[in-house]
Specification:
This protein has two helices and two strands, in the order βααβ. The chain is mostly helical and about 70 residues long. It has one domain. A two-stranded parallel sheet has the order 1-2. Helix 1 runs antiparallel to helix 2. The longest helix is centred in the N-terminal third of the chain and has 22 residues. The chain is elongated.
């Protein structure tokens, strides 16, 4: 069993979730980003999360747990 903090799936989802949560605040603080960020950014972020999860799960076969075994 692999420790949960070594899981690529958990790290990937944490980073992607953080981006989704922080993006509106970042765009409000830095209005010049609006011209570079497409209006459908959330649709693309969620699609990246889905595809990323599929690819990571296809690569891994180790279960996760609370500690290394």
């Amino acid at each position: 069993m692999k420790a949960f903090w070594k899981s690529m799936t958990i790290w990937f989802n944490s980073v992607a979730g953080g981006l989704v949560v922080l993006l509106p605040d970042l765009m409000a603080q830095l209005p010049m980003l609006k011209e570079y960020v497409p209006t459908d950014i959330y649709r693309w972020l969620f699609m990246a999360v889905i595809v990323g999860n599929i690819l990571i799960r296809a690569r891994t076969s180790t279960a996760i747990g609370l500690k290394d075994a």
